[in-house]
Amino acid sequence: MSRQYSNRAGIVKAFLIIIAAIFVVRVASLQLFDRRYRDLAEKQALRNVTQYPARGLIYDRNGSLLVYNEAVYDLMVIPRMIKDLDTAAFCKAVGISREEFEAKLTACRKYSSYSASAFMKQISKEEYGSWQNQLYRFKGFYIQKRTLRIYDKPIAAHVLGYIGEVNNNDIERDSYYKQGDYIGKSGLEKQYEELLRGIKGRKVMHVDVHNREIGSYQNGHFDSVPVEGSNLYTTLDARLQEYAEQLMANKRGCVVAIEPSTGEVLTLASAPAYDPNLLVGRKRGDNYKRLQEDLAKPLFNRALQAQYPPGSIFKVAQAVTALQMGVITPSTGFVCDKSLVGCHNHPSARSVQEAIKMSCNPYFYHVYKRIIQQGKFRSSAKDSQYGLTQWHDYMLRLGFGQRLPLDLPNVNKGNIPDTAYYNRWYGRDGWAFSTIYSNSIGQGEVEVVPIQMVNLACIVANRGYYCTPHLLRYYGPDSLQRQEFLEHHETGISRQWFDIAAHGMYDVVHEPGGTAHKASVPGIAVCGKTGTAQNAGDDHSVFIAFAPLDNPVIAVAVYVENARGGGGSWAAPIAGLIIEKYINGEVKRKDFEKHYREVAPCQKLPLPRRH
Amino acid sequence: MPPINRKYDRQLILLYIGLVLFGWINIYAATFSDAHAAVFDFDSQHGRQIIWIALAAITAFAVLKTDPRVFSTAAYIIYAAIIILLVVTLFIATVTKGARSWIDIGPFKLQPSEFAKFATALAVAYSMGQIDFDIRQKRTWVTLAALIGIPAALVLLQHDTGSALVFAGFLFPLFREGLSPQIPIFGFIAVVLFVLALLVNKFLLVGIIALFCIAWLFIWLSKRTRKDYIATFAAFVLCTVFTFSVDFAFNNILEAHQRERIEVLLGKSDDLKGAGYNVHQSKIAIGSGGLLGKGFLHGTITKADFVPEQETDFIFCTVGEEWGFWGSALVIGAYLLLLVRIITVAERQHSIFSRVYGYCVAGILFMHFFINIGMVIGLLPVIGIPLPFFSYGGSSLLAFTILLFVFIRQDASRTQGM
Hints:
The complex is a heterodimer. By secondary structure, chain A is an alpha+beta fold. Chain A is built from 22 helices and 18 strands. Chain A folds into 2 domains: 47-234, Penicillin-binding protein 2a (Domain 2) (Alpha-Beta Complex); 238-598, Beta-lactamase (3-Layer(aba) Sandwich). In chain A, 36% of the residues lie in helices and 17% in strands. In chain A, strands 2, 3, 4, 5, 10 and 14 form a 6-stranded mixed β-sheet that branches. In chain A, a hairpin with a 6-residue loop joins strand 16 (527-533) and strand 17. In chain A, helix 10 (238-248) packs antiparallel against helix 21 (571-584) and helix 13 crosses helix 15 (361-372). The relative contact order of chain A is 0.10. By secondary structure, chain B is mainly alpha-helical. A 3-stranded antiparallel β-sheet of chain B has the order 1-2-3, with helices on one face. The longest helix of chain B has 33 residues, at 315-347. Classes of the chains: A alpha+beta, B mainly alpha. Chains A and B meet through helix 1, helix 2 and strand 1 of A and helix 9, helix 14, helix 15 and helix 16 of B.
């Protein structure tokens, strides 16, 4: 049995010899008889040139360009391919010293001798033009074209964001990127990186012994064409954005304006701002460091990231919530009892509408008390837990205490405390209404992000719903829209209660006893609500508004930090100017405008920490 | 005990050492850079490969010191353990280059499929070594098909087509132990028909098949029985159905990258951005080596990173470019010598287990050699599997070392325990 098929060993061996012979013949034909491959490899070096697609452009809502590209050049080097370099001539041509040359080349060698690295980055078209014709003499060096971002006007830096070189994480996460590539680091540039970047192309070039590109390799067989990035058509109104930044130029705080019916962000200005052109080009590193160290935190986007106490603007939310819960009626009145909570001098409010107009603190103390202590349980602690849970739910429906999913990175949540929150602080049953009543007037544990404030104005303007605030109107050659931004988020609070709140806000600006007459604009029915937010420093001045009363076209929130004045003194007039500019196209009240543009509130910067 | 130099087959050990060392020299060249020029730089791949080679040497020594009966006795246990490991891998593997075949063990990555070939070889050898083994029996067939098919299927589920194909190497022992030659011949005809069906008009191809059948019947066969007519007709129908189902199989069963690679090989497409680019660069690298090569560390194409995977699957490129035709022929020759020697040594075994195991080793090594070099020189589509003993990679070096040295150990005690 065991010897039965032993002749087959020979067959197997013969088979092996045949296969090996075929391989040897094939290798011989490649290496000995076909000169094609040797020619390809020996006569010409090939160079892989990445073709960078133009990054998508960014437009405002009226079609004016916000961001575009400009060509610059990187001088690349493959250290191993340097031969017979006339160093003196080279340094003279590109304009660097001998020491710089040595330092740069050492750095490149350290990265790799065999693959290309950038010797000099972002050389301007003019500079490159002056020594372009000499480049062929310097073997091992070549030029890689790139594009830089240029900002038409120095505005909207926080929204647009900036691009920067990829780091190792980016390269590991996404194989699209290679060392030295650019990626959106913040703002829209980061949010829509994959739309904006396009698709890279490749060009394989013949390079002759003089390091000149002598043409496309194999008629471009291996090449691929770069696909341009998609353009973004944003919701921003460039003129309004610029105006808002001018008004805020010498202040700290932010202005956000939204078209209420669509949730489209018209203006999102955080002050102090910076010129986006600072974060482009070779000076970027230094500028970035300077901005980062600035105590006024210009890189911090207050409109999305700052969590402020909202102050009295929060009363609007309390009013509609209490009305919907049925714990008060529109004609409920409360005495302005300053022993409960401090207030300014005004007659007692006889209705919700009047309470909003006069911003009566004790009134909303009572309102909040009725929300929290509904008398459903005998223990006041239990009762408060029940009421707070209901209240928390309404606040979330009004867009507070949650990250509004708008299309910019790093949006903060703010804070609406719930029972778990207080239980953690005071222990179970260790708290009741008396502990938390400050929430009623937008102080205490409540923290709100400015984008949520303007969203509240939108909800009142729409009488009950909001669309997620967003910055992208449509994108790409096919004008695509993001469907999630068209959706209406209903608050579940009845329209009639918002009508009352809206009329209260109208009275704030127009009726005697209202707190924000400075927000009024001739010919426009501006509705607003002031806020004066107490904090560790001077009071913040807060104002939310929408206009006109019927069919509103704009909602605004203005927050001026440490203004040492109420909402009516700084935030309200700025909101009025924004509304006038947007609706009328220009501001007629020149003196008024000049005053609020030039005069700055006394905003003390935090002192530098001593070490 | 006889002295050690007589005991172990010196030719096999020398060939093994030669291939491992020359392989390392080429890994060094392929991954060389100024920053990692030191031989013992353990951040570099060539540095890490030294660790793997040392581990392989220790493993080889340990295998030679093991009682050879352990491997036949424990064949099924090792096999079962590996099958379980393969199943586990499917769930916990990290995806590398599209395949789910690697599991992380501390700082290292292990590829269980490399060891599955060894385990299957043991199991197949054990099964065929049984006294009642008869390849013509159906029960035997089912057992063997399951032993080979289960690990092959599991490896295929890991999307590691190359390693799954290697299991075709088990045709070697099957053929040696009496498998009808018709089966490999059918396989060969199927591959030829598959390629032709993709290249030429299918009706023309069916016509040619018909002509072949007629020629067979009326020219080759001198006497024709009724049975011949029926068999020939059946063969014709089978070929026709096969031909027309090629498109379906090609478009629906193969994955997109596999289709591309086959199309590139057949010259039907030159999607030179993907697979075509690699093979093209690989051919340039080898072709530019000429007769004598460019010399150690002087390859330009491989140095400029034009060839991907040049330290693993495309390592033969570096041989071709830096050592030229004589180097390439030497490597091919060394593999041929190794394979032929394994067959020769297998034939002198007294136990069927050892002989079958030897053929398994030859079959597995052959499939790797055939697919890898065939791919690099542009005769086969791109299928990523390592060149035994040569490519960078710890799992494969360890697994191949165990595979070969278990055989050397069996051979050394071939006269014992009969």
